[in-house]
Design goal:
The complex is a heterodimer of chains A (about 120) and B (about 120). Chain A is mainly beta and about 120 residues long. Helices cover about 5% and strands about 45% of the residues of chain A. In chain A, the strands form 2 sheets. In chain A, strands 2, 4, 5, 6, 9, 10 and 11 form a 7-stranded mixed beta sheet that branches. Chain B is an all-beta fold. The chains are: A mainly beta (about 120), B mainly beta (about 120). Chains A and B meet through strand 5, strand 9, helix 1 and strand 10 of A and strand 6, strand 10 and strand 11 of B.
Chain lengths: ~120, ~120
């Protein structure tokens, strides 16, 4: 069983609705990532946190997506409004290293939240 | 810019056959890290191996082995005597040393092992 917790596992929503995903990383892991994985593709980074600070959100569609990690522990990814093209698996990952070690070490992934937008 | 190419979209083998999954990468950095992850139907990505650019020694772990060749920018993964439980999507990924960049994944190879 994955130690990175994500919820919900599955979400079906209609376009224009708001959706939110939650991630609880492995205890003590300072670096947290949100990836999006479209069916048949590899995961693509949306946002990277170091503690509570955003390190990289260059690929996050900021007009509709937001992410926060207020206390540097768990994190929420929100989409408002959802569009048909947002249907994908949203994966959360964490790692224990900081700085360079944070991106050269093993990433631990959750089981993902699968979003279907109708 | 960094890029990972996994040319094989799907592979099917019969149980006990050996199978090699190809990975070709592009990077301008001299220091970088290569990874393989397994994604079973449950969806979770499972870490298999990490290799840095200065270590070209091939590695073997049970039925798994990896062949890293900087000359051809390849990091191939071989499963010996495949089993049905090996059926999954396998991803190769790259992290560059500069700029604290996160992992960039290939598109994955779906392996089906048939009993």
């Amino acid at each position: 069983e994955a130690e990175v917790a994500q919820s919900p596992r599955y979400k079906i929503t209609e376009k224009s609705q708001a959706v939110a995903f939650w991630c609880d990383p492995i205890s003590g892991h300072a670096t947290l990532y949100w990836y999006r994985q479209i069916l048949g593709q590899g995961p693509e980074l949306l946002v990277q946190f170091q503690d509570e600070s955003v390190v990289d959100d260059s690929q996050l569609p900021k007009d509709r997506f937001s992410a926060e990690r207020l206390k540097g522990v768990d994190s929420t990814l929100k989409i408002q409004p959802a569009e048909l093209g947002d249907s994908a698996m949203y994966l959360c990952a964490s790692t224990g290293g900081t700085g360079l070690a944070g991106v050269t070490g093993e990433l631990f992934f959750g089981e993902g939240s699968r979003l279907t937008v109708l | 810019a960094q890029k990972v190419t996994q040319a094989q979209t799907e592979i099917s083998v019969v149980e006990k056959e050996d199978v090699t999954l190809d990975c070709v990468y592009e990077t301008r950095d001299t220091t970088y890290y290569l990874f393989w992850y397994k994604q079973p139907p449950s969806g979770e990505l499972v870490f298999l191996i990490r290799r840095n650019s200065f270590d070209e020694q091939n590695e073997i772990s049970g039925r798994y082995s990896w062949n890293f060749q900087k000359s051809t920018s390849s990091f191939n993964f071989t499963i010996t005597a495949s089993q049905v439980v090996d059926s999954a999507v396998y991803f190769c990924a790259l992290s560059e040393h500069s700029g604290n960049t996160p992992l960039v994944f290939g598109k994955g190879t779906r392996l089906s092992v048939i009993a």
